[in-house]
Structures are given as structure tokens and as C-alpha cells.
Amino acid sequence: MISPIEIVTLPAQPTATVALQIPASDIRTAMGAGLNELHAALKAQRIAQTGPWFTHHLRAPGATFDFEIHLPIASSVAEAGRVRPGQRPGLKVARAVYSGGYETLGNAWGQFLEALSAQGIKTTEDLWEVYAVGPESGPDASAYRTELIKPIAE
Fold this sequence. Notes:
154 residues; 8 strands; 8-stranded antiparallel sheet
């Protein structure tokens, strides 16, 4: 289930980021390892995370995933291993919130993209996911909340 689509402008956000290009079958292990690297770098550098983590997929996922994992931060992070300073640019986007577990996230994206098309909303190829509420909140996957975000094509 996804919420109604809203058009919003997201402000620029400095981040710590790890870039990955992986086979789709490796997504669960690679995502966890990347997040662990980011958290370790922030802890070592005494930098606070300022909001929920998110990903930026440079193109629609298929057999491979070409994406970046981001942790929002208030100050710049120094490079450490695969961790680099990054930024989500300010963007005008279409956004909906998916409620549920990650195993049906692909279906939610299908609903979101169909709704965008039906409304005549033109978007870019890339996509963003903000993991607002996830497994760290407890075992009930129905409580998970993921923001589905597509930049508006200008």
C-alpha cells in the first residue's frame, strides 16, 4: 500500500555515502555491509547522523544495482575506506510512502510508477528511497515506512 503522491521540493542535504555496483542477488548483504561502514566512519569521526538513511539508485534496479547508500549528517565526513562525503541535491520530486516489509517493496514501486504515469508526471531515470522506519523499530514489518521518491523531469 502506498500513500497518495505528493510533489515536494527537498532541500540539499550533506551526507556520508558509499557507492555500490552489485548483482541484484547481493543486495541484502551489500546493503548491510555498506551501512555498517558508514556508521563506523561516523562513530570514528564523532559525526552525528541527522535523519533516516536513504539510497540513491542511479538507474532503475534490474539484474544489477548501481546505487549509493547515504547517511544524512550536519558536518562533512572525511574519506575512510569506501566512505566518501556526499550530498543529496535540492530536488523537486514526486513522493509516496510505502507501508510494509521490504519483500514487497518492488510491488510498491510498480504501483508508484503506474500512478505517476496515469497522472502524466514526468520523472528522471534515477530514484531515491528513504528508510524512515525499518527493522530497527521492531519485528512488525507492517510498521515499516519507506519513502519512494522520483525527481521531476524539468
